[in-house]
Design a protein that fits this description.
- The protein is mainly α and about 70 residues long.
- It has a domain of about 45 residues.
- The two termini are about 15 Å apart.
- Helices cover about 45% and strands about 5% of the residues.
Length: about 70
């Protein structure tokens, strides 16, 4: 379980990068609704799962301490 969780954390880190807004290259482009949710430079990715990962780490640590 520990190895799988470490691999998950590594993969999540690969998804995290600063947000770069798209610059349209045609004049009639209309902004989608989600524009403005992220600001340039905000870190986006799967880090929203960090609470779940912390929970799993605590569970694994508890099981390891019983051994």
């Amino acid at each position: 379980a520990r190895q799988e969780l470490d691999e998950t954390k590594r993969l999540i880190q690969q998804t995290e990068k600063p947000y770069e807004p798209h610059t349209p290259d045609w004049p009639d482009w209309e902004l989608p609704e989600y524009i403005g949710v992220f600001k340039p430079g905000d870190i986006i990715g799967y880090h929203c799962r960090n609470a779940d990962i912390e929970f799993l780490e605590a569970e694994i640590a508890e099981l390891e301490s019983k051994d």
